[in-house]
Specification:
The chain is of the alpha+beta class and 157 residues long. It has 5 helices and 4 strands; from the N terminus they run αααβαββαβ. The protein folds into 2 domains: 41 residues, Orthogonal Bundle (Arc Repressor Mutant, subunit A), CATH 1.10.10.10; 82 residues, Alpha-Beta Plaits, CATH 3.30.70.920. The protein is elongated.
C-alpha cells in the first residue's frame, strides 16, 4: 500500500492515541472529517492498521515479573517448529514469541505475577510441550524503554 505524508500523520496520531474521535484526528492532521475517515478505513482494509487496543499497565494487574525465556528444540523440522508455535500460542502468559536466527531457538517474553507463577508456567505449561530440549530464563530488572508505536518515515509538515 502506498502511504503519503498525510497517511503517516494519521498513523502517528493513532499510534499515540487510538481512542481519538475522527473529528479530533481530522483536526490534528489538517483534514476535514470525511476524507480523514476515508483514509483510515482504506488503511484498515489494506492491513496497514491491523487493530485497536488498550495498553494495560502490567503492575496494575499484579503481573510484576517480565521474563525472557529462550527455548531450544530437539528437532528443527518444519513439523516440530509448527507444533511448538501452535502450542506456545495457547498460553496467555506469552506476550511475544520469536524464532531466532542461528540455532533456531525461540525467544518468548512472559508476563507473570511472581517466581511461583513463573515456576508453575514453566513446569506445567512449557515443559509438557513435545520436543523442548533446553529452557533458559532471563529476568528484566528494570524496563528502560517500552513502546508500541512503530517508527514512521519522516513526517512532512
Amino acid at each position: 500500500m502506498d502511504l503519503d505524508a498525510t497517511d503517516f500523520r494519521i498513523l502517528n496520531e493513532l499510534q499515540n492515541d487510538s481512542a481519538l474521535t475522527n473529528v479530533e484526528l481530522a483536526r490534528r492532521v489538517h483534514l476535514s472529517p470525511s476524507p480523514c475517515l476515508a483514509r483510515v478505513k482504506a488503511m484498515e482494509s489494506k492491513g496497514a492498521i491491523q487493530r485497536y487496543v488498550a495498553l494495560v499497565n502490567p503492575a496494575a494487574l499484579g503481573l510484576g515479573l517480565n521474563v525472557f525465556v529462550s527455548i531450544s528444540l530437539k528437532d528443527q523440522s518444519k513439523a516440530s517448529l509448527s507444533e511448538f508455535e501452535r502450542r506456545i500460542a495457547e498460553h496467555d502468559e506469552v506476550m511475544e514469541c520469536y524464532l531466532m536466527t542461528g540455532d533456531s531457538d525461540y525467544l518468548i517474553r512472559v508476563a507473570v505475577a511472581d517466581m511461583g507463577a513463573l515456576e508453575k508456567f514453566i513446569l506445567e505449561q512449557l515443559t509438557p510441550i513435545p520436543g523442548i530440549e533446553k529452557i533458559r530464563s532471563s529476568f528484566a530488572l528494570k524496563q528502560v524503554r517500552y513502546k508500541t508505536a512503530l517508527p514512521l518515515p519522516l513526517l512532512q509538515r
